[in-house]
Amino acid sequence: MDEGNTDFMNRVISPHILAIPPYVAGKPVAELHREMGIPDAIKMASNENPLGPSPLAMRAVEDRLESAHIYPESSAPELRAALSDKFGLPADHFILGNGSDEIMEMAAHLLIRPGDEAIMGENAFSMYRISVEAFAGRAIRIPLKKYAYDLPAMAKAVTDQTRLIFIAIPNSPTGTIVSRAEFDAFVRDLPTERLLLVIDEAYREYVGEQVDCPQGIDYINGSLPVLVLRTFSKIFGLAGLRIGFGMAQTWLIELLNRIRPPFNVNALAQWAALAALEDDDHLQRTLRVTGEGLQYLNRELRALGFEAVPSHANFITFCTGGNAAPIYEGLLKEGIIVRHLKSFGMENCIRVTVGRDWENKRFIKALKKVMESL
């Protein structure tokens, strides 16, 4: 940035914007190809579905692509009706976003004034912090306890200035969950008159039915304002189309709609999401591949002496005795893109997305080679 631009920024741009570190995404395959000339790299960094999009979703987009010159219905009534049928809530309890992170930003826009606070995990999705700081709020980050949310500490951090609390179940990047009893006790301790609890369930479909874990939908109609977020990016395989949704009481959805951009969810995404909701075969195959892959990676990582964090998502995080950057860089040279968790405040750890069987085995083979060279 030249001196003229720096002067402009200091004169015109709000200091709280200049202080925000940009979001760090997983490295794309194309970027690694440009940088290192590796033609057959595999990406296991961003928790995408290794089976790809739902076949029904792809067919739906192909069948209706000739209508792409027409604006979609802005409020996505057809998709909201389908979500209503799936979750058993009225359609006016749903809002669609260009990814669930857009709805996070809407929530911050709605509630955060300069100096207001939002509580979140210290090692959590960075868009929680960015959304809050974009509106001159303060991100209060609470350290995790054994890689999971310390709910009593988060409750104690609530002040008169707290307006938002972000909790991901399962958490990213650790894949950990909390029990229903722990969560119920946490919710009971929160003031109901001045804050919103945002429950991010981007990975909720990966949690087994018999696992002791709260489900956000059960808390929507309580006395505490709750916004539950889900996405089509993960298990439904539609990350490239950018579509997520929120569930909340009608009054809160109505307020969020006041600041929702028009046509924020494109027509292709809406068509694909509608079809993906009906593709139970794709969902079940994804769960099977993920479950088997997670067991394999957990076993192999522990056999190599790593600390593997127990995960209920479609990824696993493992930690080393020191900075994991050399391992990350070594894997890149082998054509394996994983996620070094430095930007999450966990520089000793790496997160790897569960892939197909051959991808998981290629990752472990490359990891062994890298470890032998260090």
Automatic annotation (TrEMBL):
Catalysis performed (reactions): L-histidinol phosphate + 2-oxoglutarate = 3-(imidazol-4-yl)-2-oxopropyl phosphate + L-glutamate
Keyword Plastid: no
EC number(s) reported in the record: 2.6.1.9
InterPro entries: Aminotransferase_I/II_large, HisP_aminotrans, HistidinolP_aminotransfase, PyrdxlP-dep_Trfase, PyrdxlP-dep_Trfase_major, PyrdxlP-dep_Trfase_small
Cofactor dependence: pyridoxal 5'-phosphate
Domain Aminotransferase class I/classII large intervals: 40-367
Pathway(s) served: Amino-acid biosynthesis; L-histidine biosynthesis; L-histidine from 5-phospho-alpha-D-ribose 1-diphosphate: step 7/9
Pfam families in the record: Aminotran_1_2
Enzymatic class: transferase
Modified residues (N6-(pyridoxal phosphate)lysine): 234
GO molecular function: histidinol-phosphate transaminase activity; pyridoxal phosphate binding
Biological process, per Gene Ontology: L-histidine biosynthetic process
UniProt entry keywords in alphabetical sequence: Amino-acid biosynthesis, Aminotransferase, Histidine biosynthesis, Pyridoxal phosphate, Transferase
Family: Belongs to the class-II pyridoxal-phosphate-dependent aminotransferase family. Histidinol-phosphate aminotransferase subfamily.
Subunit structure: Homodimer.
Protein name according to UniProt: Histidinol-phosphate aminotransferase
Lineage: Bacteria, Pseudomonadati, Thermodesulfobacteriota, Desulfomonilia, Desulfomonilales
Gene: hisC
